Amino acid sequence: MLQSPDVQLREMSAFALGRLAQDAHNQAGIAHSGGLMPLLKLLDSKNGSLQHNAAFALYGLADNEDNVSDFIRVGGIQKLQEGEFIVQATKDCVAKTLKRLEEKINGCVLSHLLHLMRDSEKAFQRRVALALAHLCSPDDQRKIFIDHHGLDLLIGLLGSSSPKQQLDGAVALWKLANKAMTLSPIDAAPPSPTPQVYLGEQYVNNSSVSDVTFLVEGLDLLIGLLGSSSPKQQLDGAVALWKLANKAMTLSPIDAAPPSPTPQVYLGEQYVNNSSVSDVTFLVEGKRFYAHRICLLASSDAFRAMFDGGYREKDARDIEIPNIRWEVFELMMRSNNLFIYTGSVDVTLHIAQDLLRAADQYLLEGLKRLCEYTIAQDISLENVSSMYELSEAFNAISLRHACILFILEQFDRLSARPGHSHLIQRVMPEIHSYFVKALTKTNSRIQP
Q1: What is the DSSP code string of 296-321?
Q2: Where does the BTB domain start and stop, copy by copy (predicted)?
Q3: Which DSSP letter does residue 206 get?
Q4: Which residues of the chain have pLDDT under 70?
Q5: What is the DSSP letter of 147?
Q6: pLDDT (0 to 100) of residue 211
Q7: CB under 8 Å to 321, separation ≥6 — which residues?
């Protein structure tokens, strides 16, 4: 009767099944007698009443956990997700049906589905993986997609020759990514990494990197330097007080019991490229950039190696930088020093890529993360491939992950563009690595 050419008869049959499906004793029988597929097909009807009656009947059948695997087997989950429904009441009913099915994905139902995902024919395995990506709890993601290899099934769909399967896989992976993380890696701007001038005890009273030598005659004298009109005296006072504080914390094991907050020295923008208080000068394309060793030591391993290692730059007053253009070096140093000296920096889009290259070269991880975030805001269908190449060239992991999420989210539109197949094949290994890490991290966070 559900397949009768008579629309009125189909409508009445769907209505009757909807009423019968409200009784738990009838739910499994209707599904096992072949009622699911005809009801799902009626969702394609252009008759609003017929469509709604079918949706209501399916809602009743979803209440029985024995029917969950049957919904998945006949493609019911995708049918419910992708249907075009005429009236709002039908849309609401379908949403409640999906929610009801989602609530069943646990315990024995989940175990049965995992068994089917492992031992069934390939097409059904994929349907199970697709359904679980949309319906499973975040708590079960590692079990399903890592331990039981559901991730391999989804990524395999991206490499399919069928555009529909590719899209289904991308949508499922996008859903999985959103469940796995409360925020995608680059949805929110990373805070400016806390600038720290924390050099360790070996730098206390160390002439090799010192820009001031002093005898402590009294705390008032040092504090008085901070109020001086001389920028050089202000800097000297700040550095001396910082060293004094670090020494004081080591005097008594009892007094030092709670670890002290990481000391921070913000020197102010007026010290950026200021020759009057500089103790090191960089020469780039014949131009000079004035800086402070103590700040650069705290900013990156590259500068730390330059000034504290066995390199000739260790004791040099002037250091030549041969492998970078002045414009790029100045941007890097100004941005980096504003961050070190003031605690914040504004990285704009027009300089972000140049800064990323320089930040990667000089191991300025805080600046690099800010650049990645700024660049990620500009990812588009036109440039996602080149953005991904940029992320690979400079090991920009957050930017790479942003590209992956963009590709999954915009897969339908991206697939209409030339060259998309090559891009998908290229990123598939990284997609796998991304999800293994994300799902493993999610699972570790929820462990007691």
Answers
A1: HHHH-HHHHHHHHSSSGGGS-SEEE-
A2: 278-349
A3: -
A4: 182-269, 271, 309-315, 335-345, 442-448
A5: I
A6: 47
A7: 282, 283, 284, 329
Cα dihedral sign, 359-362-365-366:
negative
Two tokens, residue 145: 């997609």
Contacts of 75 (CB under 8 A, 6+ apart): 40, 127
Could you give the C-alpha distances from 141 to 145, 150, 170, 180, 445, in angstroms and in order?
6, 9, 17, 8, 12
Instruction: Enumerate residues 6+ apart whose C-beta is below 8 A from 437.
Output: none
Please check whether residue 59 is in contact with residue 93, taking contact to mean a CB–CB distance below 8 angstroms.
yes
At residue 269, the pLDDT reads: 66
SS3 content of the chain, % helix, strand, coil (to 5): 65, 5, 30
Angle at 265 between CA 261 and CA 267, to 5 degrees: 160
SS3 of 172, please? helix
CB atoms within 10 A of CB 440: 14
pLDDT digits (tens, 9 = 90+) for 107-154: 999 999 999 999 889 999 999 999 999 999 988 999 999 999 999 999
Measured between alpha carbons, how far is 162 from 127 in angstroms, rounded to an integer?
Answer: 15
**Gap between the Cα atoms of 429 and 448, Å rounded:** 31
Contact call for residues 241 and 204 (beta carbons, < 8 A): no
Go through the domains of the chain in sequence order and give each one's CATH number.
7-104 (1.25.10.10)
Q: How far is CA 311 from CA 94, 283, 285, 314, 378, in A?
A: 69, 17, 21, 6, 39
Output 86-92 pairs: Cβ under 8 A, ≥24 positions apart.
86/46, 86/48, 86/51, 86/52, 87/48, 87/51, 87/52, 89/52, 90/48, 90/51, 90/52, 90/55
> Could you give the CA distance from residue 399 to residue 332 in angstroms, rounded to a whole number?
19
**pLDDT of res. 240:** 52
